[in-house]
Specification:
The protein has 110 residues and is α/β, with parallel strands linked by helices. The mean pLDDT is 89. It contains two helices and seven strands, in the order E-E-E-E-H-E-E-H-E. Strands 1, 2, 3, 4, 5, 6 and 7 form a seven-stranded mixed β-sheet that branches.
Length: 110
Amino acid sequence: MIELTPSKEGVLLNVHAQPGARRAGVQGERDGALRVAVHAPPEKGKANAAIVAVLADALNLKPAAIALVAGGGSRRKRVLLAGLTPDDAARRIAAALVAAGSAARLRRPG
């Protein structure tokens, strides 16, 4: 189940990164996080920038509305989806998962 945490600025989302992948995009769920694969290697922030770009495309957000808040050097990351409510984020993530052919569940707070 993918966990969404509300914050003052929007919604926090856990992401499991898969750098150096053959196919980029949202790949499903792993241990409560949205699995995101990117072509970029995990060096000099290239994979982090690619993850933001993949999320922006998949969730129909501007890249500026997505910020990496934790896990810059780790596969396990925490990103802020600025300006979204948990329900709006859940709808966008569910649509991205359907488009990717995955059926992960979302856990909303409360």
